[in-house]
Structures are given as structure tokens and as C-alpha cells.
Design goal:
Blueprint (H helix, E strand, L loop, with lengths): L4 H18 L9 H17 L14 E4 L2 E5 L15 E3 L23 E7 L17 E9 L10 E2 L13 H10 L4 E7 L10 H18 L4 E5 L9 H14 L4 E4 L6 H12 L5 E2 L2 E2 L8 H15 L5 E4 L10 H14 L5 E4 L2 H6 L3 H10 L1
Length: 377
């Protein structure tokens, strides 16, 4: 029999209160019987948690079982799939075996607990092979698939061009991507769009064509781990409803598939888009880009602006985009380090950081990977 959602949430609150007051896991706090009672209460909630059902309303705090694992509703929702909707559901660690969960954020789907990402543009004639990218990078964005027919896309299809083959990056691309995913434990994300490559999705036909073309690239490359929405450029407003559908459709096809986006930090339209996408479970994180624009490389601006994004999305759905380069409106690594330290001090569970771009980082001796990456992790 399915438990009433409100009753489950209420019961869970009492259990959590019992745990907090019993001192479970704290030496010298509470009696042994208190600890036993609290553990039995948690076990009862876990054992009595209903199987998740599509279309049923779940209140905040409800615990359900889904495919053999327990999940807790972070926000009320009308039956979103627990492994797809990372905004509404989180794994409920209290129902797992072993020690108490670590207070740092756990993985969201296939996402690392802390992201150290980098963009890997395909225009470089002799780029480093994917498998040889500095090991501190755990997320690599393939930049970028472009709309067929130019912006905003004629059919909805996108194409991906391999990088230059000066060091074998193109010849070994498929094998290196799979080696990076399976052996090195990295996540490979296909970035779509970029500067001058905005896309529109005015109808479901164009959206379906886009999905089909992404699936084609996925198959050609042997699989990858996510899609990076970089298709709303300049005056190209995002078609949010269709982009939600596309994102959730890709997540449905590929369990654990990630959806990300690098919005303009200041843009209210981008803020609204990302907030709606995260709330719908259609985006895992947004990564505002703090480079290549007036004052975007200033620590004071970045710290204050990240506060805004965290307020919109929550810290585990925000990644900070750095540009480490000896050019105007970009940071040096010595400027990036105190900036990150301040941001992380404000928001300890922030999801991570990325660098634009991997090829520049390599040419400079990997300052982002070797000096910022370990701080993030």
C-alpha cells in the first residue's frame, strides 16, 4: 500500500528530529538505547517507503524507493523520475548501508561531487588528445556542435567536426573519449552552439530533429555524458519550453545524462531560463562565464554575482566559469585562486569551476588544472 505523502514527510521530520536529539554518531551524546531507537526509526521509514509511481504528487521530505535505491523529495513535485529530476529528488543516504553520509554534496546523476571542467575547442590544428588532458580535469566539453544552415538553424540538426589531427586527436577521438569515460572516470559533454551559433526551437518538429542529430553524434562517438546548451547567443532568446522537452528527452534516453549551460552572468533572460530549467529537472547546473567582457574578471564582481546565481539555483547547481589567459578581461591564475577561495568560503557546496579553454591551459603549463583544480576538489 502506498503511504500518504504528507504523512511520510511528517514522519520523516520526526525521525530526523529524533536523530538530531539522540546524538547518533556523536561520542558521549545520548544513551545507547536512544541510538538504537533512532536507527530503528530510520530503518522503519526506509523499509516502509513506497515504490515511486509516475503521476503521483510527492510532498517535500517524502522518501520513495526507485530501482532499488531510496530518494528524498527536496521539493514537492508531480511524480518526476528521481534519477532524472535532480532539483526535486536527491539520494537518501540514511537508507544506505555504511557510515553516516559525508556532509559535502554527493553526485548528481553521473556528475562528479566537484566539477573541474574545461572546454576543448575543435578548431586547434594540433590539440592534446582527450586521454592526455591534465588528469585534474574531470569534465571535458567538446566545443562545439553547430546548427545546420547557420544560426538559428534551418532544420534543427547540428553537426560536429573533429579537432585537428596534428598529435592524433582526431584519429583517436572515439577511442580516447571512451577511455576517458570508462578508465579515467571523466565526463565528456557535447557543447552545442557558441559565439554566433544561436539556435531557435519554435516547434516540436525542429526539436525532434535536434534530438535525432544529437543521438547520431552520440552513436558516432561511442557515447558521451551530456549536452551543454550554448545556443542562446546575443539576440537569440531561448525557447525554454522546447529546450526543457529536449533535455528531458535526452535524459530519458540516456539515464544519468547531464544538461549544463554557460550563461552570461549579468543577463536576466539567461537567469530566468536557467532557473526554469533547473526547477523542471532539465538542467544539472549553470556555469556563468566570468571572462571576455568588461569587469567580468574582477573578483568583487564575480563574488557578488555568484551570490545571485546561488540564490536562484542553489549552490550545487552553480559552477563558476574562469578564463585564465594573459589577455584583457581574463584572469591570471594568481587572481583566480583568491577569487575561488572567497566564493567557496561563501558557498562551501558550490558545484565547481571550469576554465576556458583547455588548449590555452596546456600552453601555459596547466595553471588552472594544477593550481585551481585541486582547490576545487
Amino acid at each position: 500500500m502506498l503511504l500518504n505523502s504528507a504523512a511520510t514527510a511528517s514522519g520523516l521530520s520526526l525521525v530526523l528530529l529524533a536523530i538530531a536529539t539522540s546524538g547518533v554518531g556523536c561520542l558521549g551524546a545520548g544513551s545507547p538505547q536512544d541510538e538504537i531507537d533512532a536507527e530503528q526509526n530510520v530503518s522503519a521509514v526506509c523499509a516502509g517507503a513506497p515504490e515511486w509511481r509516475s503521476g503521483q504528487w510527492y510532498g517535500e521530505g517524502t522518501v520513495v524507493n526507485y530501482q532499488g535505491s531510496a530518494y528524498i523529495a527536496e521539493h514537492g513535485n508531480p511524480g518526476y523520475i528521481p534519477t532524472v529530476s535532480t532539483y526535486f529528488w536527491e539520494p537518501y543516504a540514511a537508507c544506505s548501508d555504511g557510515p553516516d553520509p559525508d556532509p559535502t554534496p554527493g553526485p548528481i546523476g553521473a556528475l562528479p561531487a566537484k566539477v573541474v571542467g574545461g572546454y576543448y575547442p575543435n578548431w586547434t590544428p594540433s590539440p592534446v588528445r582527450i586521454r592526455d588532458v591534465n588528469s585534474n580535469y574531470n569534465v571535458i566539453y567538446l566545443f562545439a556542435a553547430k546548427p545546420v544552415g547557420g544560426s538559428p538553424g534551418t532544420t534543427g540538426a547540428v553537426t560536429w567536426t573533429p579537432p585537428g589531427n596534428g598529435r592524433g586527436a582526431a584519429t583517436n577521438l572515439k577511442a580516447d573519449i571512451q577511455y576517458a569515460r570508462t578508465t579515467q572516470g571523466r565526463k565528456i559533454i557535447l557543447s552545442v552552439g557558441g559565439a554566433g551559433a544561436g539556435m531557435s526551437f519554435p516547434n516540436r518538429t525542429k526539436s525532434q530533429t535536434f534530438v535525432d542529430s544529437v543521438v547520431g553524434i552520440y552513436n558516432d562517438l561511442g557515447g558521451f555524458d551530456g549536452l551543454d546548451w550554448n545556443t542562446f547567443e546575443a539576440d537569440q532568446a531561448p525557447d525554454t519550453a522546447e529546450m526543457k522537452w529536449i533535455s528531458l528527452e535526452l535524459k530519458r534516453r540516456y539515464p544519468g545524462f547531464l544538461i549544463t549551460s554557460p550563461p552570461a552572468p549579468w543577463n536576466n533572460r539567461d537567469k530566468t531560463f536557467c532557473k526554469e530549467m533547473v526547477e523542471a529537472g532539465a538542467m544539472d547546473y549553470a556555469a556563468p562565464q566570468y571572462y571576455d567582457g568588461p569587469d567580468l574578471d574582477q573578483q568583487s564582481y564575480i563574488v557578488n554575482n555568484v551570490n545571485e546565481w546561488v540564490g536562484l539555483l542553489g549552490p550545487t547547481h552553480v559552477v563558476v566559469g574562469f578564463g585564465i589567459w594573459d589577455q584583457p578581461n581574463y584572469m591570471s591564475v594568481d587572481e583566480a585562486i583568491p577569487t575561488w577561495n572567497q566564493i567557496e568560503s561563501n558557498h562551501p557546496t558550490l558545484r565547481g569551476a571550469f576554465d576556458w579553454q583547455i588548449h590555452t591551459d596546456e600552453s601555459l603549463g596547466w595553471p588552472f588544472a594544477n593550481r585551481v583544480g585541486p582547490l576545487v576538489k
